[in-house]
Amino acid sequence: MASIYWLAAVAFVAFFIRRLFVVPSGLRHLPRVPILPLLKSYLSMEPEDVRIRNLILPFADDRQEGVVLVWVLGRWMVHILDQQVRRVQDNLTRLDMTPSHKIARQMSDDLALYPKEKPPNDSLLWHLIGNTNILVSNATRWKKQSRLINDAINLQMPAEQFVALAEKVRTLLGEGSSTVRWDEFAQRFAVDALGTTVFGHDFEALKEQSMFVREYNGVMSGIADPIYLIAPFLEHILPRKTLLRRIDALTEQFVALLKAKQASPGDDMMSYMLRDPEMSQKELRDNMILLFISGHDTSAGALSTLFYFLGTHPDIQRRAREEIAAVVGKAEFTADNLGANSLPYLNACIRESLRINTPISYVVPRMSTADAQLGKYAIPAGTSITVDIYAIHHTENFWSSPHAFKPERFEQESLKSWVPFALGPRQCPARNFAMYEQRALAAVLLREYEWELPSGSKHSEKIQNAFSPFALTVPHELQLTFRKL
């Protein structure tokens, strides 16, 4: 009897190994990044940028491929890198000069052939986020939500609120010199910016550590267990009941915020969305959680990255400060003088930081609804496909010295391959919001402080990001030393 159970267990494991790692027959013609180094990378909890830089980009570069197959957390996924292909003709190597974003644009623009992929049922991340928000919805639901969220975000740019929160950060930094965990400051600023402008709720994260945010961070850390990420079927075999209860409790806190907003609406973005009778409670909840994650994680990562690069390039920091002195002087900051056209060099610094350490490495995948053609490769129906933003931003065919921080490139080079907010109709609706948020905090602190990495920083050679299973590229344990001017 024991041998029967043993054989059954072996057969069960073999079935799931085959399900996890064997390449579907319709994808075997695609150039495939070796799986063993990818597994080692996940198990050692390497950050996403390291995995792309060390494994995916070299593979694509060696073969001059714009489309590669990558094993990603339990499934095979097509990554679009949009490399220009060197072709041999008449004994000469020539470069195909098609637009750098051609394949990514082709996929991103065709919403009927490449709708957003349905989130996997065994992922606890999607158990938290839900499946009816603007990120993963399609067709009529997406159009409705896209219109509503775009209108809500564009009602009024809350630049003055960003400035007020930046002043709070300035007060916390104080006079003289201080060394702080800047990634935590950036996170606290991002949470309060999100809360006051989007939710109409002050989390007071800059005042004291928010229990809400602490619980959110704990839940996300629990979800990121690499064993469960590599073998998501374990959620059915060995369910993490305690973590599930924490996720459900956190979701209920979001529901409580939503109910409070329904009882007492204001002039924030969430109140605007609540006025639409076509939005269901589940859609509102799922979008509220999505907006929190986007505003919390990606904004904090972008702010940490920007301040890191300004801190490690004193000449660039000085030039940005001089621009603020010339444009704004000692006047109050406003939506007008914080605009991209008013501060073009600071805006170039932000664009470059978003390029070199993009907060989202690759977009939520699409799925082909029919057999299709991407570049030179046939793609069967039902294939997961994503645009690899980090890879596109670090391809030498598109960017000179792609690993160097050079804001001036945005005064000279084409922006066709700059895609931090994705491409096409489904690019991030909050992109202008995010750029204003970064300009406001940077401008306020540039006028008052200079900063640098402290001695012995682990980021002294290059920026060190946290491990993230969600394609995030966010600096980890980043300390900066601020000195009052």
Automatic annotation (TrEMBL):
InterPro entries linked to this entry: Cyt_P450, Cyt_P450_E_grp-I, Cyt_P450_sf, Cytochrome_P450_monoxygenase
Coiled-coil spans in chain: none
Cofactor needs: heme
First-listed, main subcellular location of the protein, grouped into a coarse class: membrane
Keyword annotations: Heme, Iron, Membrane, Metal-binding, Monooxygenase, Oxidoreductase, Transmembrane, Transmembrane helix
Location relative to the cell: Membrane
Name of the featured protein: Cytochrome P450
Originating organism: Mycena venus
Source lineage: Eukaryota, Fungi, Dikarya, Basidiomycota, Agaricomycotina
